[in-house]
Specification:
Order of helices and strands of chain A: HHHHEHHEEEH
Number of domains of chain B: 3
Largest sheet of chain A: 4 strands, mixed
Number of strands of chain B: 9
Number of domains of chain A: 2
CATH class of the largest domain in chain A: Alpha Beta
CATH architecture of the largest domain in chain A: 3-Layer(aba) Sandwich
Distance between the termini of chain A: 18 Å
Radius of gyration of chain A: 18 Å
Number of strands of chain A: 4
Structural class of chain A: alpha+beta
Largest interface: A-B, 37 and 50 residues
Strand order of the largest sheet of chain B: 6-5-9-7-8
Strand content of chain B: 5-15%
Number of helices of chain A: 7
CATH topology of the largest domain in chain A: Glutaredoxin
Shape of chain B: globular
Helix content of chain A: 40-55%
CATH superfamily of the largest domain in chain A: Glutaredoxin
Oligomer: heterodimer
Distance between the termini of chain B: 56 Å
Structural class of chain B: alpha/beta
Strand content of chain A: 5-15%
């Protein structure tokens, strides 16, 4: 990121929303992770400008804010698709056939791990254990979990989400 | 009663599925918050610590450290304020006991935390839940609200004059944050990188203050111990691992899911009685105890009692209570590769032996699976494991080699058939 050369160019509205989040945690010592979680929840991802703004408002070095934002796998510094698919790759799901589930998702969407479909509808990621191993293989779409997956079930689930055409990448 | 239920003994899960987790009234009418009142109104903090010490309760997060001793260290440590943390960053693959305790009986965890706080003199608690557990977060947040308005949290709990409150913090996707010092770094708003120990958290924990950090299941054991006494608790389980253990059965087993049995129940009972055996007419090949960082045990060890010490003797660990059952249709090297990819991804990168070691382990196992490795590579593999066990900073890197070392010990032939020369001669 070009932290040194660019001054934040956030819209007033975005800036206000970030202020509101920070205000919410003003009584908590070192609430950086909470704030990043919350800001991402609102905007879908954490842009460079947002990170710079947060670092200035909290008086924490930008490098540290960026370091935290890129450490945790649920935080993203890049825009993602409207629906985020997280296929569980942990051993219990692996034993139950998660590789074929992952292949089914890739085939259906035509993208690889870490990629977003050109229409901005889906982003495909792998995840560590989702804690629903009793119904593995499993995956998560946004906040919903799906278990006992087969290739056929994966296709049905994805097509249901694909009907939701209101794609947005930010 | 079928064998699935007959072998179980429910202490921790006593209320799960029995009461409405969103109703504090149902929790109270099933005996909830009685232990809290007894501790705060009738016992001195030191007596609470002594009861937990006498019970022999050991930490259910994986390490098995005596809980009472941990509390005693924190109670005696100098510093103000003191903190109690509930570690609900349940990330060990194949483990979902903490999620179901939090979602099935959230008040027993809160009650356990208040008793712990009273015992060590802590004024504030943190409940750190992994980011993937949205439902747990909602359930516990609601329960905290109820506990606050019922007077079980706040300035003057149950009229005792003791004050304590709990804040929920959400993780953001990092396995290593289940390690206690990494978790504290995360609460402090930093990257979740483990700290060098000592100093231990009971001396210098959150923001450098004395801190008790206990697993969800450990804390859920506290109310029944205070209520029924240490002797009652010691009647369950084994002399060195008293009480019950919640296990999660996953993989190739008929009844996948959550079970609670006395410590010392054998692996065979869990797999074949409680678990209902192996499906599709296949045979048992191995069980990994304790999650991805645990050892892999062959059929010849099915009669081993599942408790902290028995498993340590065979280079495995009880860990979080995850049990991954693998049948004879799977190749051991393929399963181990899956474990190694996991650790490679989850290493926090702070210490070199883990950052580079987990990477090299994954490449070596891939090389073996691709039938390009030689006997010398197997030697490198086991030496690398030994180095990591001794030199990694925290439990992640120290335990990552465990599945490799135990499969090399018990399933060496499966590695050998993948070696370049072997594979070539087989092909010829």
């Amino acid at each position: 990121m070009n932290a040194c050369s660019t001054a934040p160019t956030l819209s007033t509205e975005t800036d206000k929303q970030i202020d509101r989040v920070i205000e919410e945690y003003k009584d908590e010592p070192s609430p950086l992770l909470e704030i990043l979680n919350e800001v991402q929840h609102i905007f879908g991802y954490l842009s460079d400008d947002m990170l710079i703004a947060i670092s200035e408002k909290l008086s924490i070095p930008t490098s540290q804010v960026y370091g935290v934002a890129t450490f945790y796998s649920l935080l993203s510094t890049r825009p993602k698709g409207k629906h985020i698919i997280r296929v569980c790759e942990s051993a219990p799901c692996h034993v139950m056939g998660s590789e074929s589930v992952l292949r089914a998702v890739k085939d259906e969407l035509g993208i690889d791990l870490g990629e977003t479909t050109p229409d901005g509808l889906f982003t495909l990621e792998s995840t560590s254990c989702l804690g629903i191993c009793s119904v593995g293989p499993a995956m998560m779409v946004n906040d919903r979990v799906f278990g006992n997956l087969t290739r056929e079930k994966v296709r049905l689930i994805l097509r249901r989400y694909a009907k939701d055409k209101e794609a947005s990448v930010s | 009663m079928n064998s699935y239920l007959r072998s179980q003994k429910r202490v921790v899960l006593r209320n799960c599925g029995q009461i409405d987790p969103n109703s504090i009234e149902e929790y109270i009418s099933s005996g909830g918050y009685r232990a809290l009142k007894r501790a705060l109104l009738e016992m001195e903090p030191a007596a609470v610590v002594q009861t937990v010490k006498d019970s022999g309760l050991r930490g259910r997060g994986g390490a098995g450290f005596p809980t009472g001793l941990k509390w005693e260290f924190a109670a005696k440590a100098e510093g103000d304020p003191k903190f109690v943390i509930c570690n609900a960053d349940e990330g060990e693959p194949g483990t979902f006991k903490d999620r179901l305790i939090l979602e099935g009986d959230p008040h027993c965890v809160i009650e356990g935390m208040v008793i712990a706080a009273y015992a060590v003199g802590a004024s504030k608690g943190y409940l750190y839940i992994r980011g993937e557990y949205g439902q747990s977060y909602e359930t516990i947040t609601n329960a905290l609200k109820q506990a606050r308005s019922a007077g079980f949290l706040g300035n003057d709990i149950a009229g005792s004059g003791f004050g304590f409150d709990i804040v929920v913090r959400s993780g953001a996707g990092a396995y290593v944050c289940g390690e206690e010092t990494a978790l504290m770094e995360s609460i402090e708003g930093k990257r979740g990188e483990s700290r060098v120990k000592p100093p231990y958290p009971t001396d210098k924990g959150l923001w450098g203050y004395p801190t008790v950090i206990n697993n969800v299941e450990t804390l859920a054991n506290i109310p029944p111990i205070i209520e029924n006494g240490a002797d009652w608790f010691r009647q369950i389980g084994t002399p060195t691992s008293p009480g019950t253990k919640v296990f999660t059965l996953t993989g190739d087993v008929m009844n996948r899911g959550l079970v609670e049995v006395p410590m010392g129940t054998t692996l065979r009972t869990l797999v074949f009685d409680v678990g209902g055996g192996i499906p599709r007419g296949r045979k048992f090949k191995m069980a990994q105890t304790g999650g991805s960082s645990g050892g892999c045990l062959p059929a010849s060890l099915l009669d081993i009692p599942l408790d902290f010490d028995s498993l340590r003797e065979v280079d495995s660990s009880l860990g979080s209570g995850a049990l991954l059952i693998v049948d004879d249709s799977h190749c051991i090297v393929d399963v181990v590769k899956s474990f190694m990819h996991f650790f490679e991804h989850e290493s926090c990168g702070k210490c070199t032996p883990c950052r580079e070691g987990t990477y090299r382990l994954a490449r070596l196992v891939e090389k073996i699976e691709d039938e390009e490795a030689t006997l010398a590579d197997l030697d490198v593999l086991s030496r690398l494991c030994r180095v990591m066990e001794r030199s990694c900073l925290c439990g992640l890197g120290q335990a990552a080699p465990k599945p490799v070392l135990t499969t090399l010990k018990y399933f060496k032939e499966e590695y050998l058939v993948h070696l370049r020369d072997q594979a070539a001669s087989k092909g010829a």
